[in-house]
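To the structural biology subgroup,

Please find below the input and predicted structure for ParD-like family protein, which we are adding to the shared reference set this quarter. The sequence is reproduced verbatim from the submission form. If anyone notices a discrepancy with their own records, reply to this email rather than editing the shared folder directly, so we keep one authoritative version.
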Amino acid sequence: MGIVKISDQMHENLRVASTALNRSINAQAEHWLRIGLLAETNPDLRYSDICQMLMRTAANEGGLTLADAMAGGVHA
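Predicted structure (tokenized):
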């Protein structure tokens, strides 16, 4: 675990989104990081495809690792 410095505006965006989506600020940040990682490593996927893949992965395996994302495991 580490500390990540972000701008005040990004922190405010996280606060608003986390409240709206009933997540902690840290959980919202982790969600956005996961989505961004998957979008960058799988540019052919739409946001809705990524969300559906994350839901399937969570149900089947209990989570998605960085190695899965980098290996293209999101298409399973």
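Summary notes: The first helix runs from residue 8 to 20. The mean pLDDT is 84.

Regards,
Lab coordination
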